[in-house]
Amino acid sequence: MSHPPTNPSSVEHDTHDHAQGFWQKYVFSKDHKTIGIQFLFSSIIWGVVGGSLAMLVRHKIAWPTGQIPILGDWLFGETGGVMNEQFYNMAFTMHASVMIFLVIIPVLAGAFGNFLIPLMIGARDMAFPTLNMLSYWVMWPAFACFIASFLVEGGAAASGWTAYPPLSSTALGNGQTLWVIGVILVGWSSIMGAVNYITTIITMRAPGMGFFRMPMTVWALFITAILQLLATPVLGSAMMMLLIERIGGASFFTPTVISGAEVLRAGSEGQPLLWQHLFWFYSHPAVYIMILPAMGMVSDILATFARKPLFGYRPMVYSISAIAGLGFIVWGHHMFQSGMNPYLGSAFMIGTMMIALPSAVKVFNWLGTLWGGQIRFTSAMCFACAFVSMFVIGGLSGIYMAATPVDSQIHDTYFIVAHIHYVLFTGSLFGIFAGVYYWLPKMRGRKFDEKLGKLHFWLTFIFGNGTFFLMHIVGMGGMQRRIANPHMYEQLLKWQGLNQFMTWCAFILFASQFIFIFNFLKSWMSGEKVGKNPWDANSMEWTTPSPAGHGNWPGEIPTVYRGAYEFASPLVDEDFLPQTRKLDPKPQEG
Amino acid sequence: MGSPEQAPPTKVKPGAVVIGFLVLLIGEIIILSNAGLSVPDIQPAPITEHAEAVDFLTNLITWVVLFFFVLTQGLLVYFCIKYRARDGEKAKASHTHGHHTLELAWTFIPGLILFALAVFQMGTWGDLKFRAEMPSLESKDTYVVRVLGKQFEWHFWYPGPDREWHTADDVVKGGQLVVPVDKWVVLELQTIDVLHSFWLPNARVKQDLLGGQTIPLWFKPYTTGEYPIVCAELCGEGHTNMSARLLVQTEDECNAWLAKLAEATDFEKSEDRWWQYWREVQTTAAKR
After folding, report:
1. If you average pLDDT over residues B265-283, what whole number do you get?
2. Which class for A21: exposed (0-12), middle (13-18), buried (19 or more C-beta within 10 A)?
3. Residue B46: which domain range?
4. Pair B125, B200 in one domain
5. ipTM of this predicted complex?
């Protein structure tokens, strides 16, 4: 099955340690490892911004007329330190935009994709290093657009991260326009990255590294890159159309609107639903872009620390592919109540129910991996196990929303807020934490402080659930999302106690993340030094020094002899058998 | 790869697994459905039969979901405790690459359950949204109201006692939707500006309003009372304030209220600018 690909570049590239200046080495670097680490550091900064916005949102929901502590007078001087409703709309819009476009996607695809793909497939670097560098450097202008939008007249975008027209197309001020430009830049970065990953994985694998010997992380990043390459241009086109609407006055999505004392876009026959179709055609696959790489990393981490082969490797690959394929035909489940033809809703419901199937297969395979293992609970493993547990909750709550009549009740309530955070926070982000704890030794040659890591894990796990689980109940109980003041509604008063409890949990959750940042920086500077393979893992990245030098392997690229999951193999005395270790031919070897 | 399949730690009889699994699931559903455990208890009180049908489906999903939740979380915790590496222990984990029968079982059983769940939803979904299921607008027993969504108010346009639109006895009233009990109510949803979403939490129905379109929504309340109407789609700065009340009254009360209001207000002479513009748009659209 596996044909060892020829890999000319792996020989030619060699370890040319040509002298590089500071700027070339650390700033405008074309080395995939540096770019990956740049993505990681930047996303931590952006994540703090996104998290702070979430704290403002939670504060407003819990105490709608309360003063914002410390920053209140500075931010909202004219209202006595109380956040106004328009700012609340901006806060949740930008929280989601920053977290999705500048944290989850860049960390998974940008940081891990860049850092891991060449190391795990045995390549010297990415296929297109300059394109790679650009994919990082367009992220900063995107971030600048998002931040600058808070400073322009009218403030930042306030129409939700989904930016449904006509609200987004008729919003006054330049905030929404800057948001559109920022998202276009992020999309550009995604496409440049995706082209690179696909080319690299197809053409630059080490000798012997057949497709079905690649670790799950690489498979997941490969499939993710295909999703990005196919879906992101649609988002880009939709954003361009919205930009033309906003600065050119065209009406693709905006019908005639009567606003106050004037008629806008008179005679227009723009279609608001067109936007929703285009937007979700990207943004539903984007949900999988944000979870598949985490699934891949978690698969590798579970196998490594259970000291056991991944249960059902091929079904895992097929189910990731199935999720990606089905991911393209389920976007309509965001639009069951939108006025889209309800017959179409039925079709999308079937597709959506079916996409739960490969997800279920993955969960059972992860459980099968733990079954009969010798589990070592490092911080990375704790987060990986918690990922499985939390992903189950996020997946199961999705079934409620896939069911069209039930969705008719819980659509646009806190139930969906709970669902998305179970998938993206306790899902993707737990996967990211697991990945950072696991691969920091390779990035830096130093280990995390495990005690602080465990503390971070337990605080995040407990208060993450404290924040998000109760949202299911509040949502079922009839609380709509995106309202600034639940006190306006008599029927919601009974949930206010829960809302305040969730907010306290969210504050502690946010504070706990600084333990991670402290631990990250501390370990980066002075963590315990480690050798090539601190976790006794099998995949290729652990065969080169930590951190790996320019060109990734000091000598020749090692040859691959087997898959990445030969733990507890009866062929050797150790409980691991690296992909690149050549065994003397014995009669019993298959 | 091609490494031989090896026996898992315990012998598994595929038939027994499948049957045991189904027995447990069905048993759980029967026990829970008879135990009176119900998710909709935390939901607002239902006021229509459709709402009760939706609640039944919500419950059904909850029972299935609960089963898989307990199963997977239970196994996860059990494995984490049972198979943790103890200090000083040198034993290897079991060298297993997978198990075909098990994997087939946990692909097909959830697949069937999910497909069945989806099919189960179809009837209620059709009742809620398919135009073919909509009560006839001509019928004397159907009570039709136009709902106008406007930043950040709900306005309700009643045809008045003569049941004709654009006549002198039409009534436009903000903030209050009054409907008769035990009759089909058909709402024709229209927005004059951005998207809104008309949500009756007690009737379990929600429908977005789209500019340039009229979208119907129907329900048949079986109990009188006052209930919230909520805008569920972000519609701008004052989104949080966009709400109204639904008053379900007896037919006589409802008619009397409407007649009184029709007398007191002159529909055609309304001074509201938005209303004048809206009528212009309506007439232009009608001419086309």
Report:
1. 72
2. exposed
3. 14-79+99-132
4. no
5. 0.90
* A381 chain-B contacts, CB cut-off 8 A: none
Domain locations along chain A: 29-252+285-543
Residues B147 and B125 reside in one and the same domain: no
Judgement on whether residues B203 and B123 belong to the same structural domain of the protein = no
* SS3 track for A175-206: HHHHHHHHHHHHHHHHHHHHHHHHHHHHHCCC
Q: Are residues B120 and B226 in the same domain?
A: no
CB contact under 8 A, A367 and B1: no
CB contact under 8 A, B234 and A170: no
pTM as predicted: 0.92
CB-based contact (8 Å) between A344 and chain B? Answer: no
Same domain, B196 and B113: no
Alpha-carbon dihedral A473, A478, A484, A485, rounded to 10 degrees: -100
- How does pLDDT run across A46-75, given as a tens digit for each residue? 999 999 999 999 999 999 998 888 888 888
Count of the separate structural domains present in chain B: 2
Distance from C-alpha of A8 to C-alpha of A518, rounded to nearest angstrom? 42
Distance CA A88, CA A483 (A): 9
Output the DSSP codes for B259-286.
HHHHHH--GGG---HHHHHHHHHHHHHH
Contact A406 B54 (CB under 8 A): yes
Asked if residue B167 and residue B118 are part of one domain, the reply reads no
Residue type, B248: V
Topology of the domain comprising A29-252+285-543 = Cytochrome C Oxidase; Chain A (1.20.210)
User: Does residue B66 sit in the same domain as residue B150?
Assistant: no
What would the pLDDT profile of A347-391 be if each residue is shown by its tens digit? 999 999 999 899 999 999 999 999 999 999 999 999 999 999 999
Task: Give start and end residues of each alpha helix (H) in A63-157.
Answer: 72-75, 85-97, 105, 114-121, 129-137, 139-151
Residue appearing with tokens 């060699």: A14
